[in-house]
Design goal:
Radius of gyration: 17 Å
Number of domains: 1
Shape: globular
Strand content: 5-15%
Distance between the termini: 41 Å
Order of helices and strands: HHHEEEHHHHHHHH
CATH topology: hpI Integrase, Chain A
CATH architecture: Orthogonal Bundle
Structural class: mainly alpha
């Protein structure tokens, strides 16, 4: 398995910085409901596109303010059998209000069949296309960070900059090892300056 990195071999950033994340979110909020909520979910949960398309109304906790996401990286129990692993990620209430209004989450939860249906019945490729198109509209340069992976890494960087404990970020991102999550504590550029500024103040 290749080691996760925040920069490519040429030193190019692989994550969206704070300015790019804000521009992406603003552009997403100008889109039709399906694309807006899809992008907001990736932005606020840090989930992978393959995980996003598995989210159902049953996994949205409107009163608890969280979304349960199934981690799709293979995990094994003590006997070596594959096991299902879910993680719960807290999300902003205004985002949940938008999600509920756009997709009728509360209503769908009353029907077992509707509650188990994907909110975004799309392929991973289609999700990638939607996200990339909106990133272009947001003015994010044609560089390695302009991708859903760049959005996920941006979520991790943002959490680290804002002092989220690594063990909590590990849970939110669905990493099996804390050492994987620790790359976000090695933030660089403006993000590193923001962390260092705590010593200067």
């Amino acid at each position: 398995m290749s080691e996760m990195r925040l920069h490519d071999p040429a030193g190019n950033r692989l994550y969206l910085n704070a300015e790019e994340r804000a521009a992406f979110l603003a552009a997403a909020r100008r889109q039709p409901a399906r694309d807006r909520t899809l992008c907001e979910t990736l932005h606020f949960t840090g989930c992978r596109p393959s995980e996003l398309i598995e989210i159902t109304p049953a996994r949205v906790d409107l009163s608890g303010g969280a979304i349960a996401i199934r981690s799709l990286k293979k995990r094994r129990d003590a006997s070596g059998r594959a096991k299902l692993v879910y993680r719960t990620v807290p999300v902003p209430p205004d985002y949940l209000d938008t999600l509920n209004t756009a997709h009728g989450i509360r209503e769908a939860q009353r029907s077992r069949k509707q509650a188990q249906a994907s909110i975004w019945p799309l392929s991973r490729v289609r999700v990638w296309q939607i996200v990339t198109r909106i990133m272009i509209e947001a003015g994010i340069p044609d560089a390695p960070q302009r991708s859903p992976k760049g959005l996920r890494h941006g979520f991790g960087i943002n959490a680290a900059v804002n002092g989220i404990p690594l063990h909590m970020l590990q849970k939110w991102l669905g990493h099996a090892q804390l050492s994987t999550t620790a790359i976000y504590a090695d933030a660089t550029g403006k993000e590193e300056q923001d962390i260092a500024a705590r010593m200067w103040g």
